[in-house]
Design a protein that fits this description.
232 residues; alpha/beta; 6-stranded parallel sheet; 10 helices; 19% strand; binds adenosine-5-diphosphoribose
Length: 232
């Protein structure tokens, strides 16, 4: 898959499945987060305007889970791929947890924001989120009680899209790990990379049938280390 030993530019896109074996819930699997909460209430600007305390409760609970979780072998294998320097790795994640960083990945592109980030809904200031965020907490810059998690909600524009598109158009290999491929624009990355000439690979225990050249059907904690070992 993708070159025989030649240095490749590899774009990896991760989704909730890469953190599933670290104990963090996915969204659309059985008992996924969107089966427990109505995403309209906790993952839209309208929901936040309607009930900011509910939104903070939801993200405070996810932040607590994240803090108590640990990276798994999939996160660690991606660190090994980066540190091997045998290929240029661009790691894009839809996840808002910090398990990639805690495993040692650097330059992680969080297109949907980060649980550990705080944003002022009034002046756009950003700062490190406290473990527990409250809606009436004053913004450290403008003092408005408009604190929100720095998370991209449905209806908002994902972050770093220009950089991501540039990488997709120039990569030799695009790998989607642990994502259902149901939320755009991330779900369209495989097509953009393929059209630009990249090979495409999906790693997922339940392949999505999303038009990948190759599929490795398995859980991330074993399939990702095996894939990385085949590359370095
Ligand atoms: N290893 C790898 N993949 C797994 C594992 C595992 N152990 N367990 C489950 N998966 C796969 C599932 O088969 C599914 O394809 O992870 C995927 C999880 O899909 P979703 O729950 O839809 O998560 P994701 O694709 O990341 O959602 C995308 O939707 O709600 C928004 O912003 C949110 O970033 C999220 C986006």
């Amino acid at each position: 898959m993708g070159g025989c030993g030649a240095k490749m530019k590899i774009v990896v896109l991760t989704g909730a499945g890469v953190s599933a074996e670290s104990g963090l819930g996915t969204f659309r699997d059985t008992n996924g987060l969107w089966t427990q909460y109505d995403l309209e209430d906790v993952a839209t600007p309208q929901g936040f305007a309607r009930d900011p305390a509910l939104v903070h409760d939801f993200y405070n609970a996810r932040r607590r889970n994240c803090i108590s979780a640990a990276p798994n072998a999939a996160h660690e294998a991606l660190v090994g791929l980066e540190k091997s320097k045998q290929h240029d790795l661009i790691l894009v994640t839809q996840n808002v947890d910090d398990l990639h960083e805690r495993a040692g990945s650097t330059g992680v592109i969080h297109m949907h924001g980060a649980l550990m980030g705080a944003l002022c809904a009034s002046c756009d200031a950003r700062w490190d989120a406290p473990a527990e965020m409250a809606a009436d907490a004053p913004c450290p810059t403008c003092a408005a009680p408009a604190t929100r998690p720095d998370i991209v909600w449905f209806g908002e524009i994902p972050y770093h899209m220009d950089d991501i598109m540039t990488h997709l158009e120039a990569c030799d290999l695009f790998v989607a790990i642990g994502t259902s491929g149901t939320v755009y624009p991330a779900a369209g990355f495989v097509d953009l990379a393929g059209q630009a000439g990249a090979d495409t690979l999906e790693i997922n225990p339940e392949p999505t049938g999303g038009g990948f050249d190759q599929v490795i059907a398995g859980p991330a904690s074993t399939a990702v280390p095996a894939w990385v070992d085949s590359l370095i």
